[in-house]
Design goal:
Elements: E1 2-7, E2 12-17, H1 22-31, E3 38-41, H2 48-59, E4 63-67, E5 70-74, H3 85-89, H4 97-104, E6 106-110, H5 123-131, E7 135-139, E8 142-146, E9 153-155, H6 161-171, E10 177-181, H7 187-198, E11 202-204, E12 210-214, E13 222-223, H8 230-243, E14 245-250, H9 258-266, E15 270-274, E16 277-282, E17 289-291, H10 303-312, E18 315-320, H11 330-336, E19 340-344, E20 347-352, E21 360-362, H12 366-378, E22 382-387, H13 392-395, H14 399-405, E23 409-412
Parallel strand pairs: 2-14, 3-13, 9-10, 17-18, 21-22
Antiparallel strand pairs: 1-22, 1-23, 3-5, 4-5, 6-8, 7-8, 10-12, 11-12, 14-16, 15-16, 18-20, 19-20
Helix pairs in contact: 1-2, 1-7, 4-6, 5-6, 6-7, 8-10, 8-12, 10-12
This protein binds uridine-diphosphate-N-acetylglucosamine.
Uridine-diphosphate-N-acetylglucosamine binds near residues 26, 91, 160 and 323.
């Protein structure tokens, strides 16, 4: 159980340093199962999701060794995992399916866990594996896959990030050419392709809606530094919009954050870009319309932090969540803090400008947890954010330290 106590205070000043992206490093940890050689990640964030996936890779015969700030990953002889508790912990555990199938000719997973933000089925992952020639059986809570993989053409009904990554990782060692149509375009997909290509794979078009993978016989070791975390960087930007201030977000890649940055500017924030990051200044003033979409649309992972910005701005904001069906779980907690929000299905209407008051609130999922801490930065009195499942530590490294370094009053009890 993590508990954070937050108080409002002076505007945020100084800088925040962005870590490598959780959603980029997780598939790379899974990709290390594709070769017997070592994959070196020079800087690896210290997140509980990273530790959980490393635990699972180790159950598959892998070795994940911390080396200073980085990590060396290798799997001389992969095996099928027996235990399933790691898989229930993180949704990213599903990403071992493609690499194991490609390397061993078989894989076994349970239905993965993670944040309860929606049903999160894996039908598209399985559809992709079937198109590459895998036989799929469901037995005693496990999904078992086997087969010698060959190239295929896969159309994804939705541009699923995880399914695109899983199919890419399965196809790199398949015989022949694979094409993924309506692939996800998130920067983390292009980053994974860059890592796979450094390992000797032939992946083209990653980052676009059409990815072509030419299978190779084997992959080798590589060194790859994943991209900075656009969601962590975006959360820092939202923190400034909520508390007011002037912050350098060091390491942020503005080209990965366009949708958020435009919306913050519309809300009255000043943004300037530098080669090594961006500066965000001001405090949210005007309302906004947010529709979450696949990249390059507004990221669903920043919907909750941005809703706190909407609570601070004057006027009526409208949020439409189109990616996950259960991603408004922060709203009942915000109502307890005095926010004025109405929800109808996937639409939330926020009347901004109502003063927030400190309260004891509970963290329902990773991004909602971060959002509730941001709400505490603007609330009168003390806000106590209880996080019984440790969601915030899954995706933010030392979140409270990052905020206190900017002058915020946040304590982990
Ligand atoms: C990834 C991110 C997560 C982010 C999400 C959407 C990682 C580790 N996590 O999650 O932070 O919120 O992208 O940007 O990268 N779907 C299906 N069938 C499937 C797979 C997905 O219907 O087989 C649906 C999901 O229920 C959801 C939508 O597709 O409604 C998008 O999900 P997906 O892109 O797969 O998200 P994740 O890869 O799980």
């Amino acid at each position: 159980m993590a508990i954070f106590e937050v108080e409002s205070g002076a505007p945020l000043m100084g800088e925040a340093v962005v870590h490598p992206a959780k959603n980029a490093v997780l598939p790379i940890i899974a990709a290390s199962l594709l070769t017997k050689d070592t994959i070196l990640v020079p800087e690896m964030p210290d997140l509980s999701d990273v530790r959980a996936l490393c635990g699972l890779v180790q159950e598959c015969g892998g070795v994940c060794q911390r080396q200073g700030a980085g990590m060396a990953l290798s799997t001389p002889e992969p095996t099928l995992p027996e235990a399933s508790h790691m898989m229930r912990w993180t949704r990213a555990s599903v990403l071992i399916m493609g690499p194991l199938l490609a390397r061993l000719g078989s894989a076994r997973i349970t239905m993965p866990g993670g944040c309860a933000i929606g049903q999160r089925p894996i039908d598209l992952h399985l559809k992709g594996m079937a198109a590459l020639g895998a036989e799929i059986v469901t037995r005693q809570g496990f999904v078992e896959l086997k087969g010698r993989l060959h190239g295929g053409v896969i159309y994804l009904d939705l541009p699923s990030v995880g399914a695109t990554e899983n199919i890419m990782m399965a196809a790199v060692l398949a015989e022949g050419v694979t094409r993924i149509e309506n692939a996800a375009k998130e920067p983390e997909i292009a980053d994974l392709a860059q890592c796979l290509n450094a390992m000797g794979a032939q992946v083209q078009g990653a980052g676009s809606g059409s990815i072509v993978i030419r299978g190779v016989r084997s992959l080798h070791g590589a060194t790859h530094q994943p991209i900075p975390d656009r969601i962590e960087a975006g959360t820092f930007c939202c923190a400034v919009a909520v508390a007011g201030g002037n912050i350098l977000v060091r390491g942020a890649r503005p080209e990965h954050m366009r949708a958020l940055l435009f919306k913050l500017q519309e809300a009255g924030m000043s943004i300037s870009e530098f080669p090594g990051g961006l500066r965000v200044r001001g405090k949210a003033q005007w309302p906004m319309e947010i529709r979450t979409l696949s990249y390059p649309g507004f990221p669903t992972d920043l919907q909750a932090p941005m809703m706190i910005v909407a609570c601070i701005a004057q006027g009526t904001s409208v949020f439409l969540e189109t990616i996950f069906e259960n991603r408004f779980m922060h709203i009942p907690e915000l109502l307890r803090m005095g926010a004025n929000i109405r929800v109808e299905d996937h639409v939330a209407v926020i009347e901004g400008g109502y003063p927030l008051q400190g309260a004891s609130v509970s963290c329902p999922d990773l991004r909602s947890g971060a959002a509730l801490i941001l709400a505490g930065l603007a609330a009168e009195g003390v806000t106590r954010v209880e996080d019984p499942q440790g969601h915030i530590d899954r995706g933010y490294e030392n979140f409270e330290h990052a905020l206190t370094a900017m002058g915020a009053q946040v304590r982990r009890l």
